[in-house]
Design a protein that fits this description.
alpha/beta
Length: 149
């Protein structure tokens, strides 16, 4: 079973998991790590390493972080780099985590996808999950006072 570690600033990771549960139900083999103002960075590194160990069932681990180059990301890189090389090969770090990405990860876990395919599908969902809407996209806005809804 794929394992997930979600490491973010503040309680974003807890909120992300809470929202995902509302949509997909129970979520298995997932650990959240929160960086709270004033937390020790070395402790963050250990929490991430412990989380990876906890969810690693041999099928792969995906670590999600919120911001590229920020402390959760940097400490995830360090924690992963301390693992044995063979174990590192089945661990991916994805940054810019969003609810659509995480839901896709859970879906991949449910279908027992291998970690490489799961990561590709999660990245595709990340790209598809960002869209734009503007009233400028609607032809003849304001041409009619009739509501169509």
């Amino acid at each position: 079973m794929l394992g997930f570690v979600v490491a973010t600033h503040g309680a974003l990771s807890d909120g992300l998991i809470d929202a995902a549960k509302l949509i997909v139900g129970n979520i298995d083999n997932t650990v959240t790590v929160n960086l709270i103002l004033g937390d020790d960075i070395d402790a963050l590194n250990q929490k991430i390493a412990d989380g990876i160990t906890q969810v690693n069932k041999g099928d792969g681990v995906i670590v999600f972080t919120d911001l590229f180059g920020a402390s959760p990301y940097n400490q995830s890189v360090l924690a992963i780099s301390k693992l044995p090389k063979a174990q590192q090969k089945k661990i991916y770090l994805l940054t810019g985590v969003s609810l659509p990405m995480f839901i896709e990860a859970v879906n991949q876990q449910m279908i027992d996808a291998n970690v490489d395919d799961a990561v590709e599908n999660i990245l595709n969902q990340a790209n598809d999950g960002v869209t734009k809407w503007s009233s400028n996209d609607i032809a003849d806005v304001g041409a009619s006072n009739d509501d169509d809804f």
